[in-house]
Design goal:
- Residues 18-118 are annotated as: Disordered.
- Residues 111-171 form the Homeobox domain.
- Helices cover 41% and strands 5% of the residues.
- With 264 residues, it is mostly helical.
- It folds into two domains: 3-104 and 119-176, Arc Repressor Mutant, subunit A (Orthogonal Bundle), CATH 1.10.10; 218-234 and 246-264, no CATH class.
- Strands 1-2 form a two-stranded antiparallel ribbon.
- α6 packs across α7 (154-207).
- The chain is rod-shaped, with a radius of gyration of 29 Å.
- It starts with a helix and ends in a 57-residue tail after the last helix.
- It binds a DNA duplex (21 and 21 nucleotides) through α4 and α7.
DNA sequence: CACGCTGGACGTATTACCTCA
DNA sequence: ATTGAGGTAATACGTCCAGCG
């Protein structure tokens, strides 16, 4: 995902309590470790500051729609009591599978124990990718089937999925980081511009005699926010509004809003 | 040949669940 | 019925390092 893709998305900046909003596949699973902090949206119901994209497709590989397919444990959870037994049975199969697999062995032909690097074929990689798109985690049956299909050991399939998850997450983190950096730059620029505007307005106010100041009715209003005079927000003598969320209650007649504030 | 990158493999920590005393 | 210990399995994470360009 490049930043070109982000151009069509709106930015969400929120501060407050977030209700648990775990994706379905996480709800159906047994609760595991706390989710990664970079997960969007934040899963914990604590006060949080979020900055994210409004599009749901932002993290396709991280939050695949697993609600339509069995998650690694949801398929087993309905068996509750026999869960471990079933998994152990499958693990037994795995051992047999590993013994039977002739493609890779822990030892080389010459008997040395050096770590031999497996190179997956294009077909194997493609099938694994395809499978990962469907579900980023595998239940034992799926792992078994995939391993059989690929002529690999289940352990290799498992490792591949582990690495794939980790590296997908890493990549996404880098993208998020880059995106947040850009947001930060933009907001810094905006802040600088507004500070400058404020200074100029103050200077203008001091320079003008009181009677020459424009009556409120002639002031230009920001067309997009239209907050002047609206609502219950009151403006004190300094132009500062009272109330927790009011802003931009002072008209901005400078520069005629050639560059309306992003806050509007 | 050296170097950096990619990705397969592994070790460890954590968590959940089960069995059993 | 409850509880705590021990065992097992799955996953995340960090790291190593072979192989490749």
């Amino acid at each position: 995902m490049g930043f070109d893709d982000l151009s069509n998305t709106s930015l969400l900046l929120g501060l407050g309590l977030t209700l648990p909003s775990n994706p379905p596949h996480l709800i159906s699973q047994k609760p595991k470790k706390p989710l990664d902090l970079l997960c969007f949206p934040p899963p914990e119901s604590e006060p949080s500051l979020t900055l994210g994209l409004s599009t749901v497709d932002t993290y396709p590989s991280e939050t695949p729609d697993l609600s339509r397919q069995p998650s690694p444990h949801s398929a087993i959870s309905s068996f509750s009591g026999s869960r471990v037994k079933r998994e152990r049975d499958v693990s037994g199969e795995e051992i047999e599978e590993e013994k039977a697999s002739s493609r890779v062995s822990d030892e080389d032909e010459d008997g040395s124990n050096a770590r031999k690097k497996l190179r997956l074929t294009k077909e194997q990689s493609a099938l694994l990718e395809e499978s990962f798109k469907l579900h980023s985690t595998l239940n034992p049956k799926q792992k078994q089937a995939l391993a059989r299909e690929l002529n690999l050991r289940p352990r290799q399939v498992e490792v591949w999925f582990q690495n794939r998850r980790a590296r997908t997450k890493l990549k996404q983190t880098e993208v998020d980081c880059e995106f947040l950096k850009r947001c930060c730059e933009t907001l810094t620029d905006e802040n600088r511009r507004l500070q400058k505007e404020l200074q100029e307005l103050k200077a203008l106010k001091l320079a003008q005699p009181l009677f020459m100041q424009m009556p409120a009715a002639t002031l230009t209003m920001c067309p997009s926010c239209e907050r002047i005079g609206g609502g219950a927000a009151t403006v004190n003598g300094d132009g500062n509004s009272k109330g927790p969320f009011s802003m931009a209650t002072k008209p901005r007649f400078y520069k005629a809003f050639t560059k309306p504030s992003a806050a509007c």
